[in-house]
Amino acid sequence: MSRGRLVTALLVLAVVALFALPLALDGGASEYAGTDSAATAAIEESGYTPWFESVFSPSSAEVESGLFALQAALGGGVLGYVLGRLRGRRAAREQAAPPDAP
Amino acid sequence: MHIAEGFLPAPHAVGWTVAAAPFVVHGARAVVREVREHPESTLLLGAAGAFTFVLSAIKLPSVTGSSSHPTGTGAGAVLFRPPVMALLGTVVLLFQALLLAHGGLTTLGANAFAFAVVGPWAGYGAYRLTRALGAGLLPGVFVALALADLATYVTTSLQLALAFPDAASGVLGAAGKFLGVFALTQVPLAVGEGLLGVLLFRVLTVNARPELERLGVLRPAAAAEPAEEAR
């Protein structure tokens, strides 16, 4: 079990490092603009004008980031709920029967 | 990978919508069938959808100096096969198109084709191949999630190249340009997504063993030894 925990900790650390290192290493030289907007900028440079507007656009960057946070929170909440239920189910089953029973 | 609203010429927008629609309809049927025949799958289906929902909301910095988001579609493709993700992925894209002005209705078809069709199938194909070569579940999951992520962005690049060929170098030149924007940035993100998938499946193999065995992801083991956990 402790080996399993170590592997989990290392995996989490690797993920964090993977995204923290680019930020730390270049010392604020990059803006980290989104690739989606880079692509639209490249297209607009070629003289193309979009022919359809979004039905609804968040009125400010704050509202937009709030809605993105809402999306992440909904997903994270549901994921946490499911994993918690599955874990509780296993715990209940192990309590009802000895761990090695079929 | 979101092509912005109105940023595909109408014939392309219609073409990709027609191409994606059968996959999404088939996916919707697959989800309904799964829930009807195996109501106990609903929890895991929720987890697969939620995983895509979180990951596609989070924009992460990459070594190239720009940022992008993972896709998370590989996890559901491994668990329930790709058709299910055609529906779940499209739902995510629709949410973002309507509420976040991210992607769009006219580009929903093209985005769904990249995100909810090509990504899951590429990831699932890579998963089956690694498993067939004798690798365990977790390496298979890593490859599946990383490749689903990367394949989505490659598809978006090619879709844009087809719609906006370079004046001098044509579709190929444009493909190089858009791949330069999307694909390189995506490599570290794809690796990170693969690692997150391994974390998720480590939890699932312990806590959702009966479901994983029924879905054929784990081989039914008479005695579950810790060493066998990752098979």
UniProtKB/TrEMBL annotation, chain A:
Chief localization class?
A: membrane
What are the TM regions of this chain, as residue ranges? 66-84
Q: Which molecular function terms from Gene Ontology are attached?
A: cobalt ion transmembrane transporter activity
The pathway it acts in is:
Cofactor biosynthesis; adenosylcobalamin biosynthesis
Keywords, A to Z? Cell membrane, Cobalamin biosynthesis, Cobalt, Cobalt transport, Ion transport, Membrane, Transmembrane, Transmembrane helix, Transport
Would the keyword Transport turn up in this protein's UniProt record?
yes
What are its GO cellular component terms? Answer: plasma membrane
InterPro entries documented for this protein: CbiN (IPR003705)
Annotated compartments:
Cell membrane
Stated family:
Belongs to the CbiN family.
**PANTHER family, per the entry:** COBALT TRANSPORT PROTEIN CBIN
What's this protein's function? Part of the energy-coupling factor (ECF) transporter complex CbiMNOQ involved in cobalt import.
Q: What is this protein called?
A: Cobalt transport protein CbiN
Instruction: Identify the coding gene.
Output: cbiN
Automatic annotation (TrEMBL), chain B:
Matching entries from Gene3D superfamilies are given as: 1.10.1760.20
Q: Which family does it belong to?
A: Belongs to the CbiM family.
The record's section on PANTHER family has:
COBALT TRANSPORT PROTEIN CBIM, PTHR43627
For this protein, the record's InterPro entries field holds: CbiM, CbiM/NikMN
**Alphabetized Pfam families for the sequence:** CbiM (PF01891)
**How the protein sits in the membrane?**
Multi-pass membrane protein
Residue ranges annotated as transmembrane are: 13-31, 43-60, 80-101, 108-127, 133-154
Name recorded for this polypeptide: Cobalt transport protein CbiM
Mind telling me which GO cellular component terms the entry cites?
Answer: ATP-binding cassette (ABC) transporter complex
Q: What does this protein do?
A: Part of the energy-coupling factor (ECF) transporter complex CbiMNOQ involved in cobalt import.
Keyword presence, Metal-binding:
no
